[in-house]
Design brief:
By secondary structure, this protein is mainly α. The chain has 7 helices and 5 strands; from the N terminus they run αβαβαβαββααα. Helices cover about 45% and strands about 10% of the residues.
Amino acid sequence: VELRTESVNYLTSLPFDGYAIGGSLGKNSEELLQLLDWMMPMFEEGHRKEKPRHLLGIADEKSILGAVGHGIDTFDSCYPTRVARHGTLLSREGRINIKSGKYAKQYGIPIDQECQCSTCQRYDRAYLWHLYKAKEPLFMQLAGIHNIQYMNDLMAKQRQDILDGKI
């Protein structure tokens, strides 16, 4: 706590256009949100309030949703493409583990019914299951495209919720 406070005070005294928050952010989402609970009020003081705040390397949904509520403006992470490479597809219905045989015959069903990405518009779960099981590199590209679109949609909803005063 003391070192983070010293860091915030020092770095915000410099003429940066915004602030990046990184380093050890806890072992899980709960610890990250506890850290943001006490740290983010420091960014509401004086000139700090007007500058954007970026959270480094965090992009799982739970952390993003909690961090936006704490005043974080932007994020970066390999999370959407990393989980895609390992067979996890993000969906409004929850995560889809495409490795599961239950997807082998889900013809005509996109990853996410609401998604407008090129993967969901052209391919079904059964085909993606086949590509994953065949170790076809195309799977990683299609899954990555979808997961990135999913995260972009999630962030668009967060932006709209901010504008609507819900956050």
